[in-house]
Specification:
Layout: E1 3-7, H1 22-30, H2 35-55, E2 59-66, E3 72-78, H3 98-105, E4 108-114, E5 117-124
Antiparallel strand pairs: 1-2, 2-3, 3-5, 4-5
Amino acid sequence: MERVVATLVDASGRVRPAPGDLRRVLSADLARLGGEVLGRVHVVCAELLANAQVHGGGVAAVRVHLTADDAVCVEVDDRDPALPAVLDFDLERTGGRGMVLVAALSEVWGVSTRSEGKTVWAVLRARPAGAGGAGV
């Protein structure tokens, strides 16, 4: 059984609460999962929100679900159907690391297309120290 932790869009289509409140909401609702998972969830949410805002025509909705086996699923809808780019690491580049971080911090991530944009999602769960993530 899934439990919705946070939904940042109301019936009128306005993003509520403000994305800046997401960290506070997630910290309160996911505290029992521990700091390691919560830290990764915060970073993944921030990166997906930033990508939607900068590259996806704006954030349309954000959903965070907690599954029965304590996996956290983060979904961010935007308004652009273009797929996110995972760029090769370059020390000289000042940006372009968002999806690399999402891939490294998530167990799995992916993209679902929608009629008016896309949903970029990531699944995170507790893992042994030093374990890496994988992209889809």
